[in-house]
């Protein structure tokens, strides 16, 4: 859960000035924190922790119930990491990629399934954590840090030689590329989740409840796809940082 702690720390600092609607803030010293993001993020983290505890409380040789479901989820996450990083390198990155996927997946579905807006706040309203640009940018920055850490761990200082190959003039472009790739993921995730919640909210307000249901079902599907895309590309970026080292060894 280290990635979730890092996400909470990053969310303490505004990472972007894009804001839609009013927000519920906590003033802590000189910090101005998006309170509604923390509240729902803690709810998502609590769900993941409770599911993990329930699955491991009484482990059976033949799994069933929640244990069986969680073992299936773990195998899915292992396969996701293996497909992106290869058999040799995937194991250390299963926790990172898996936590990214689970946090985004549960966050997206919480926004699609739970009527957060009926909970009254002094100002603003509750929504999925991924509905806030600061959350998605924080996830992108964590992916960038993992990307650099993977490359530096594998290649040492030689990792930075890639930035001046084949010609040094490419240095600014390669540095910019390293940050724009994960940041593009953050804006895609933010845009899709925000748009989905806004469309469903407008339709529920304008038409009877049963009319928006197909759109809500589609929203659940696209929310799952967004989590899969983010985690898959995070794994692909990490593999890109280390694959040059493996090629040199062979």
UniProtKB/TrEMBL annotation:
Gene3D superfamilies documented for this protein: ATP synthase, F0 complex, subunit A
Cellular component terms per the entry's GO annotation: plasma membrane-derived thylakoid membrane; proton-transporting ATP synthase complex
Family annotation (PROSITE patterns): ATPASE_A
SUPFAM superfamilies: F1F0 ATP synthase subunit A
Subcellular location: Cell membrane; Cellular thylakoid membrane; Membrane
Membrane topology type: Multi-pass membrane protein
CDD domains per record: ATP-synt_Fo_a_6 (cd00310)
GO molecular function: proton-transporting ATP synthase activity, rotational mechanism
Main localization of the protein described in the UniProt heading: membrane
Entry annotated with the keyword Glycoprotein: no
Alphabetized UniProt keyword annotations: ATP synthesis, CF(0), Hydrogen ion transport, Ion transport, Membrane, Thylakoid, Transmembrane, Transmembrane helix, Transport
Keyword Thylakoid listed: yes
Bilayer-crossing regions: 33-55, 93-113, 133-152, 189-211, 217-238
Family matches, as InterPro entries: ATP_syn_F0_a_bact/chloroplast (IPR045082), ATP_synth_F0_asu (IPR000568), ATP_synth_F0_asu_AS (IPR023011), F0_ATP_A_sf (IPR035908)
NCBIfam families: ATP_synt_6_or_A
Cited HAMAP family: ATP_synth_a_bact
Similarity field: Belongs to the ATPase A chain family.
Role summary: Key component of the proton channel; it plays a direct role in the translocation of protons across the membrane.
The protein, known as: ATP synthase subunit a
Source organism of this protein record: Lusitaniella coriacea LEGE 07157
Lineage of the organism: Bacteria, Bacillati, Cyanobacteriota, Cyanophyceae, Spirulinales
